């Protein structure tokens, strides 16, 4: 009986045919009938290289057959599910393993939350935890992981820069902002904001900030 249930759980990670419907649990294309709606998706942000936890929970008092985490790959209309973690408490000695792109980097908590170490840009995307309950069907929790890459600052002049007294000089710096949440670019002099008499000009394009003073 246990082997059959484990096989059923493994099959569910590939097919994910919904057996029951709940409000805000299954996406409209899930094939469920009755009360359908857009799934609630929680967004979690993490810096590249950090460890992050994707929050989730389920009722541990229920006869759970398996808990699986999958990552949705491809366009939303035709996305596929890639297994990243599987847990089956009813297997012989229980079954718990990280899979695919998170193999060796994911840990499942007792409440169903998933911790991922050494996060990279490739890990960004939508994840779904599916709980398979004996006699009740499946419930799902959706989490979107957004990975932030720290900006890179480049100064275009030789340091230290030597100039004659009473002459004008332009200082240029480039702040790469791709995949980085750059809200403000500042120049500091001796740890303080530059004096008001120094002119500042900020140029922005689609790939970087150029911040100049003269």
From TrEMBL:
Per the record, the major location class is membrane
One Pfam short name: V-set
Q: Does Glycoprotein appear among the keywords?
A: yes
Q: Which GO terms describe its molecular function?
A: cell adhesion molecule binding
Please give the superkingdom of this protein's source: Eukaryota
Biological process according to GO: cell-cell adhesion
Q: Name it.
A: HAPLN2 protein
- Organism of origin: Branchiostoma lanceolatum (Common lancelet)
> Which lineage is the organism of this entry classified under, starting from the top rank?
Eukaryota, Metazoa, Chordata, Cephalochordata, Leptocardii
Which gene underlies this protein?
HAPLN2
């Amino acid at each position: 009986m246990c082997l059959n249930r484990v096989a059923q759980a493994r099959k569910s990670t590939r097919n994910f045919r919904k057996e029951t419907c709940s409000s805000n649990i299954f996406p409209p294309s899930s094939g469920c009938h009755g009360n359908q709606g857009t799934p609630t998706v929680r967004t979690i942000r993490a810096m590249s290289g950090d460890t992050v936890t994707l929050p989730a929970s389920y009722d541990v008092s229920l006869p759970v057959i398996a808990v699986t985490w999958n990552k949705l790959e491809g366009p939303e209309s035709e996305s596929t599910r890639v297994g990243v973690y599987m847990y089956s408490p009813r297997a012989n000695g229980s079954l718990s393993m990280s899979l695919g792109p998170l193999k060796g980097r994911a840990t499942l908590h007792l409440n169903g939350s998933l911790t991922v170490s050494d996060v990279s840009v490739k890990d960004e995307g939508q994840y779904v935890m599916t709980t398979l309950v004996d006699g009740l069907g499946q419930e799902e929790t959706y989490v979107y992981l957004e990975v932030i890459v720290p900006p890179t600052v480049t100064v275009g002049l030789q340091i230290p820069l030597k100039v004659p007294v009473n002459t004008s000089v332009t200082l240029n710096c480039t702040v790469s902002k791709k995949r980085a949440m750059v809200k403000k670019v500042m120049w500091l002099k001796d740890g303080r904001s530059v004096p008001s008499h120094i002119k500042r000009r900020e140029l922005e394009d689609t790939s970087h900030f150029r911040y100049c003073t003269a």
